[in-house]
Amino acid sequence: MKLKTPSLSTILFLMLLALLIIPQTRTPIQVVVNSVKILFWSPSELDAEDQTQLAPFVYQLSTINGTNKVVEVGQGKPVFISYWATWCPPCLAELPSIQKLYTDYHEEVDFILITNEEQQKVRRFIDKNPYDLPLYTPRMSPPEKLQGQRIPTNYLIDAKGKIIIKETGAADWNSERLRGVLEKMIIRQ
User: Taking the CB of residue 97, how many other CB atoms lie within 10 A of it?
Assistant: First the structure.
């Protein structure tokens, strides 16, 4: 019996499969794949009937340095909330776009990036990456309408507590469309 020589596509497929199995190469590959997705996907406003109203509340948080902080939600200022993790490839892929948005809007919008990871692990991540984002761990459970099972899950909430955007998975948070939504929210305050 004569063995068939594998085709180039078969060899490439097997190499990709091997790279995905190896833990050290799996995350970077997944980050790249999600970064490509971000090129084509930016969040948009929910339809009016799908926008959910939150009762105003105070989010009790801790910074990655252990300082307690509170952020008022639905009490006069738009809020961007992101549930993320340092080990999550879609989260890592969208962080650069969140950083750009934060750089331009951090005075008009409260940004809250929340992880359940140990603060020391998050500090090590920030030491290795050039982000200047407000990173927190929660000191309370979020309201039921903000509870989810997947990360990243991001919310853009208007000054009165209405969820205008809810997005699960990697997205381009620095898109012109999203900036337009933010500009309208800021003007309405």
Answer: 19
Q: Which domains does the chain have, with CATH numbers?
A: 39-188 (3.40.30.10)
CB 133 within 8 A of CB 95: yes
pLDDT at 13: 80
pLDDT in the model for residue 41: 77
Cis peptide before 152 (omega within 30 of 0): yes
Q: Which residues contact residue 63 at a Cβ distance below 8 angstroms, ignoring those fewer than 6 apart? A: 69, 134, 135, 136
The residues near 33 (Cβ < 8 Å, ≥ 6 apart) are 89
User: Residue 23 has what pLDDT?
Assistant: 67
Whole-angstrom Cα distance, residue 28 to residue 15? 15
Separation in Å, CA 95 to CA 53, 87, 88: 26, 12, 11
Angle at 38 between CA 50 and CA 174, to 5 degrees: 75
Mean pLDDT, 10 residues at a time, the chain of 189 residues? 76 72 72 77 90 96 94 94 95 96 96 95 93 96 90 96 95 94 84
d(CA 51, CA 163): 5
Give residue 42's pLDDT: 86
Residues 136, 63 contacting (CB under 8 angstroms): yes
